[in-house]
Amino acid sequence: MAALAAIKANKAPLRGDVIFAAVSDEEDASQGTRDLIASGWRADGAVIPEPTNRVLITAHKGFVWAEVDILGTAAHGSDPASGVDAILQAGWFLTALEEYQSQLPVDDMIGPASLHCSLIHGGEEPSSYPAKCTVTVEFRTIPVQSDESILSDLKNILGTIAQTKPTFRYNEPRLTLSRPSYKLPVEHSLVQQTAAIAQDVYGSLPSIESMAIWCDAALLAAVGIPTIVIGPAGQGLHAKEEWVDVQSIRETEKIFVRLISEFCN
């Protein structure tokens, strides 16, 4: 906002429009950016001013949430001949996931894909064999992965277990939420232009990197808007004490003023 105020105060003519999007819900479902896109707003470039510690971000991981139901047979705890323990059966799936994790792909910019089992639910009470155990897996993804490839991999894992374990049964895996990864080539003009401006402001060329967390850049890129992420220095994201360095805020303002002036002319 300070950069926009400075541009307006300078009364320098711009050949293009500047859209300031103060969107909501970035920490959850990105509903603000999704609504913005659905309304038809488009741009030739976008900047997300996350506090990147003066690093220029051109890529980030995506994420996928998957649920898998491992099935057993409910029975009283005193009747092992009738019961099949879904939680114990899920152990085979978890072991297979650990092996699969070591084979996940690696991106030269973003780094390795990853997964972890974030939730597990099963059983009704201590004296019964659990009929179902649901495992929630979060994948942190890179560009070569897709919703379809992850579902296919999960189906293959489950099918392979079922071939060797006669009592192993499951429901088809399902995705509950998915957000794509993002990667803008370092050679892109928006990256190079911003890096040159930041070098003048910082006194040295900023590091061009990726980040492991997800942000709205991927949604903007999906509709053809090249996007970078750059912002002030700070620490304590989501912590009790969250702060940014005042001088770095001033530096970020200078970068945005110059970028707007040059990009829109």
UniProtKB/TrEMBL annotation:
Residues 58-162 form the Peptidase M20 dimerisation domain. The keyword Metal-binding applies. Signal peptide: none annotated. InterPro entries: Bact_exopeptidase_dim_dom, Peptidase_M20, Peptidase_M20_dimer, Peptidase_M20A. Keywords: Hydrolase, Metal-binding. Coiled coil: none annotated. GO terms for molecular function: hydrolase activity; metal ion binding. SUPFAM superfamilies: Bacterial exopeptidase dimerisation domain, Zn-dependent exopeptidases. Belongs to the peptidase M20A family. This is Zn-dependent exopeptidase. It comes from Aspergillus uvarum CBS 121591.
